[in-house]
Amino acid sequence: NKLSEEYQIAGIGIDTHMYSVCRRIGDETVVYQWNCVWNRDREMEPVLKEHLLASGCQNDTIFGAYKAATAEKHPDQPFYAYDLQAYLFRALTGRLAVDYSTAASGGFFLATEKKWNLAFMELAGVDCSQLPDLLLPNDKVGMLKAGLFPGSENVAAATGLGDGASACYACKHLSS
What's the CA gap between 143 and 68, in Å, rounded? Predict the structure, then answer.
């Protein structure tokens, strides 16, 4: 809002390689980041190993898929297959979307097939009713919702692969 008082904002790029995973608790969405304290589950790790490797992740507590698969299951507190980036895009544009690279960093993605690992999500007890649209880095997600700040309905949101790519997309006359 402060920036829109002085500048005409043309685009917002969101790059969130934060290895996060979202969970519903009551009416709220909680985001578990990579650096959240998480107990190792040595018994579950052999089961997780192949699924995580298929996504390009290590068998490690930093990944959202590890957190979801090893957490105590509560039907009224499901984990989702999306991360902070997809959550922010939905809040800003109404579209639940994530780029391939960020999707892979969560651990629920089959990197070589470029699709969601539904078998692993089912094993992990993830709510698959809300799967983000998969986009290429720097793809336009959509226009911001009207009313976020003055002129927001004329601002595009895009995925990013590093701050340089995000900044280029958001800068008028520098990128297509």
Answer: 31
CA–CA gap between residue 98 and residue 84 (Å, rounded): 9
- Which pTM does this prediction carry? 0.81
Q: Which residues contact 3 (CB under 8 A, 6 or more apart)?
A: 9
pLDDT tens across 32-41, in order? 998 999 999 9
Q: What is the distance between the alpha carbons of residues 115 and 52, in angstroms, rounded to a whole number?
A: 14
**Cβ atoms of residues 13 and 158 within 8 Å:** yes
Angle at CA of residue 79, ends 82 and 90, nearest 5°? 35
Between CA 7 and CA 16 the distance in angstroms is: 24
